[in-house]
Amino acid sequence: MIYVLVVAVRSLRTATVKTHKYSVIILKSIHASECFFYAIFSRMITIEKYDSLSPAIKETLHHYIQAEFGHIPIVQETTWAQPDWTILQTEDDMIVTFFNIIERQVLLDGRPSKIAGINNVITPPPFRGKGYSSQALNSTTEFLFNELKSEHALLLCADAMIPFYNRLGWYTVNSTVYIEQPSGRKLWTANTMLLSPGKAITPAVIDLQGTPW
Predict the structure, then answer these.
(1) pLDDT digit string (tens) for 139-172?
(2) Domains of the chain: residue spans and CATH
(3) Which residues of the chain fall below pLDDT 50?
(4) Which residue stretches of 18-140 are H helix?
(5) Of 111, 112, 125, 135, most Cβ neighbours within 10 A?
């Protein structure tokens, strides 16, 4: 199924979703599952299966990721999960922000829970300070919780980014977090944050049951 979201037209009888800046309409129906997108004037946010991205787009995103995080020791030393989905926000055909989603069944205090993992939230330097990443993250929560049926979203981040995500409704958890690496099960020692559609949770132990994101 493709969701096309456009600037709201009152005569259409459809569900309306609020972004932090715009009112948009969800028009349901085209039969496919490879891409979700909406257009806001010249801006567009697309939600695509990672495997369906063109080699050129993947190379561009890899370049941005390496430039942003490639020099960080923990990034270099860790084996990371491959995304299931990629969110791209473009303006005049230029990528102004993007991030990835990993679908995973994790264990929260031993209980299986479907999680949407968020990683590599990046706005290229020329486009920073305009709120693009906040808009993209806020605008895709419906997709995370309603379309993917995730119980919570989870990200792993540096200290400096905590205030940014706090402003978007994310909260830190002081959980023991386990990840998988080629050498075996490891303890994740950096920050873990959650976004919940309802009440915040405080699991003592989170097992990602796979590589981190």
Answers:
(1) 999 999 999 999 999 999 999 999 999 999 999 9
(2) 3-207 (3.40.630.30)
(3) 1-33, 37-42
(4) 55-69, 73-77, 132-139
(5) 135
